Amino acid sequence: MPKGQAQLGRELYGARTSDQRLGQAPPSSGDRRLLPRGSVPCLLTVLRLAAHQKAHRGADMGLAVALVRAGHLARAVELVRSGAGRFRPDEDLVRLVRAAGEAGDLDGARALLESLTDRSLRDCALVAHIPAVARAGEREHAAALVETVRYPHNRPRAWAELAKAVADDGDHGAALGYAARAAAECEGDGTQTGHALLTAMEIALAAGDHALAGTFADRIEDLVRSEARKGVGLRAFLVAVLAAEARRGDLDRLDAVLRSLTRTAAARAAEAAAAEAAGPRAGDDDSGALALTILARPRPTFDARIVAELLEEVAETADREVALALADRAERLLRCDADFDSLQLREAVTLLLARHGEVERATALADLIAEPDLRAARKAEIVEALARSGDTDRAEALARALADRWARSRALMAVVGALARHGETARAEALLPAIPDRWGRSEALIDVVGALARQGEPERAEDLTRTIPLRRTRARALAALVDAPDPARARRLAARAVFLGGWAMVFDDLAEIAPGGALAIADEVMARRAHLSP
User: Fold this and answer.
1) ∠ at Cα 304 (301, 309), nearest 5°?
2) What's the CA gap between 112 and 103, in Å, rounded?
3) Degrees to nearest 5, angle at CA 199 with 197 and 204
4) Global pTM exceeds 0.90
5) At residue 399, does pLDDT exceed 90?
């Protein structure tokens, strides 16, 4: 594993690697000389020039969705169908059907889905289109479209999507009827059934019908229980049920799951002990009398990862009393010698404890990790969780005390970010030099400049971006300062970000600061592809 990867974590390490790959920013702030203060560039021209740069992976689909939102569905379809190395571009067309519906272009969405020749993809596109029809006020038409869904296994999802759309409009009574229809249509097992039952449960809870919600939750538990024996992973649906119940303080179902897990662990431990006590049978040393007995081990009723994923799901939303009750149960499970990989569960309970201020208990769990890099990473994550909870004083003290420089960098970056979000920009800026990693200081500075801009100091924020040495990191910092209410400044900063890091840097802001930006980029991208094609 490369140096620092474990301590920084996958996301930060990936960002660091990407920024370093693009190289240094121009010397002597060359981007500022190109676009000095007071200048208002033609951002569309800058975007057209930048469109010839190689876009980030996945940027084509984002560009296509932006075109749909801007009213250019035909151009989006043309861009997607041009391929660009996609194995099955028709799958992206299904996403465009949903995007067109969400943008209010129901006619265009319908025409696009009818143009799909693959029956399965066309069915999926119809399911994606139905909620948009309902949100447009055509509920009866949407219900009629559900009846036209070709494949039976897609109908529960279609009814569930319709129910969710109606619930979003506030009509929980009608939504509950559609949710019940979704549950009734469920046949057999699989993810479609799980999605339909979970949606039905959530709508029943929103409608205040806890008894019906419990019925749907029981069906989800039965589904996960039966599928676990076949080795099919549907635990995410039970995690969602347990999380909803835990937020209400109801841990009865979780306790039943834990009893099942501990029973399985005890049975396997007893089996191993019995096999060891039996020892070799008489005659086993006779090479002519070798007998092999293969016993199929029954699969456990539940996957133990359910508990870890539950803790991760509710870490930020459960109240302190429930969180500590969950942590107690998780630690008991860790002590039961179950034969499953406990690393994920140990990490989840550690971060849950840290998020709710139980730093000593969290640190004690982290100290049990034998691998030094992973132990340092876990302690950095404890500081991150503590900083997110608002206890920045204790988080800073713990971060400074970390011996591993990579872990200390990650922890101090989290503290700087938390301080900036709370408006303590002076303290955040003063803490930047303590970050050992040079890239880490620049990355943390992005949070500071964003906070300064929100506090009414845009000029100072812009000046600080010039201290960032890597071009992509500086581009992201400039993109964070783009503010649509000040269009001239927004266009200048956006142009600098594009100059340094490419058009994907400011893509999310184009609709407001450059309404024709997506179309300009698409034109250039398509022209370049046409030129390169044989």
Assistant:
1) 125
2) 14
3) 95
4) no
5) yes
